[in-house]
Write a structure and sequence with these properties.
Protein name: Monovalent cation/H+ antiporter subunit G
Order of helices and strands: HHH
Number of helices: 3
Number of domains: 1
Oligomer: single chain
GO molecular function: sodium:proton antiporter activity
Keywords: Membrane, Transmembrane, Transmembrane helix
Pfam families: PhaG_MnhG_YufB (PF03334)
Transmembrane segments: 7-29, 49-78
Helix content: over 70%
Length: 104
């Protein structure tokens, strides 16, 4: 019973991670400017990777590899939003104008 619940939770976490990564991909392809793309890439990709890595850590159990998976998860949570901020700031300082709906 507990093992079935554990496997179901692992599958749910990995499927959720794949879903949010897919949403991030669609957002990067469809959104109009670098600011919106950086926003969607940082948020949904971080959530997707976080859910997938949580599923992997749960699947590994209490082993040394689980510690590395959790450290990778922390690294992604720190670096992904920071990188998106740096990209958006570089675009702003380079003079890239945000997309506006009323402009052609």
């Amino acid at each position: 019973m507990i093992e079935t619940l554990r496997v179901a939770l692992i599958v749910a976490l990995v499927v959720g991670g794949v879903f949010f990564t897919l949403v991030s991909t669609v957002g990067v392809l469809r959104l109009p400017d670098v600011y919106a793309r950086a926003h969607t890439a940082s948020q949904t990709d971080t959530l997707g990777a976080g859910l997938a890595l949580a599923g992997v850590a749960l699947g590994l159990g209490w082993r040394a590899e689980t510690v590395f998976t959790v450290l990778l998860l922390v690294f992604i949570f720190i670096t992904n939003p920071t990188a998106a901020h740096a990209i958006a700031r570089a675009a702003y300082e380079s003079g890239v104008e945000p997309w506006r709906e009323d402009e052609p």
